[in-house]
Amino acid sequence: MSELTTLARPYAVAVFKAAKEAGKMQEWADMLEFLKQVMADPLIERAASDPKVGKDKFVANFLDLCKGHLTPDGENFVRLLANNGRLGLVGTIADMFAEFRAEEEGYVDVDVITAYPLEESEETNLNALVEKWMSRKGRLHVTVDESLIAGVILRASGRVVDASIRGQLQRLAKRLSN
Question: Which GO MF terms are attached to this record (predicted)?
């Protein structure tokens, strides 16, 4: 377990429990995903860690930037993270929240990287394969990466299956160089 995961876990667990008890899973999922995207911006990330920008000033500006996307509870969560110097963990917290939610709701999020866009029948077949592999329904997030040449890469719950031509060529090159 990485240090980021260790630091983020208590926040993710607390937010998940609060969202579940309040029946606001989707609301919190949306807020956390939004915060993750905002914090991924290099300018925001730099400002958050810049000692010249005071914490209170940063939080006020950050919340102003997020206006309309956060509930009062979401704003309080941002303040809590900022006061504890953990705002940079929001991406990890969002990812963990999504994993907890998937587990709770009986599905698994699967990142699918393909060399070309999938047809509906291919996506259906892939979903059936994921269900056998993970023993629960999959929610596919498909992206296209033409550098794979052909095939697919699946990532779910810390597991990776690389069935791409690029991956096979890389493994072959590694074996030949040894």
Answer: proton-transporting ATP synthase activity, rotational mechanism
